Amino acid sequence: MATKTIQGMNIQQFGGIGMALYGNVTNYVYTMLTNSSGAVVGSDSTTAIADGDEVILGVLPQGMTLHDSLLIVSDAFTAATVAKIGFRYADGLNDTTVPNDDDYFGSALVTNAVGRLRNATTNPPVKLAREALLVLTSSGAAHASVGRLDFIVTGERFGPK
Question: Which helix (H) or strand (E) holds 129?
């Protein structure tokens, strides 16, 4: 299993800590594009995404309470590809209260057809103990075509405490 990381991840937010007037609800948008050979555009790897590979979509901040997500596939990936999306702590450690969860946002998410997939898991909202990586794990088939997905995480920023 290989891991590919999208370089230059840029997260923009509205509101934030100390801006209670506007609230702390934030949407983070992460985009994954593949080229015609199935490699992640802008990543640290030029090889195609293989069955079982992980793609680090971006970073979720410490103290964020995760509420919901939306997966938008606007350009379908290779036939038979599916994904699970979850998180793991960036420092490599786990947490007993809110442990790493590789399918927190969903498993068997269809990426080989265009569509919008709302989070349908029964996971309760959790507050991240530390900075976490948003991880997509691909399965079903190797990628070998152009594709695009946008993954939107909705939550509240409360800071590290």
Answer: none
d(CA 123, CA 30) in angstroms, rounded, equals: 21
Q: What is the CATH number of the domain that holds 39?
A: 2.60.120
| Residue 134 CA, distance from chain mean position | 4
Q: Which domain holds residue 74?
A: 3-157
Nearest to 69 by CA among 134, 158, 140: 134
Give this prediction's pTM.
0.88
In tens, the pLDDT along 5-37 reads 877 655 544 444 444 555 678 899 999 999 999
* All residues at 6 or more sequence positions from 10 whose CB lies less than 8 Å from its CB, including other chains: none
- DSSP assignments along 53-88, one per residue: -EEEEEEE-TTEEEEEEEEEEEE--STT-EEEEEEE
- Per the structure, the count of domains in the chain is 1
pLDDT tens string 52-110 = 999 999 999 999 999 999 999 999 999 999 999 999 999 999 999 999 999 999 999 99
**151: which strand partners?**
30, 71
Distance CA 90, CA 60 (A): 9
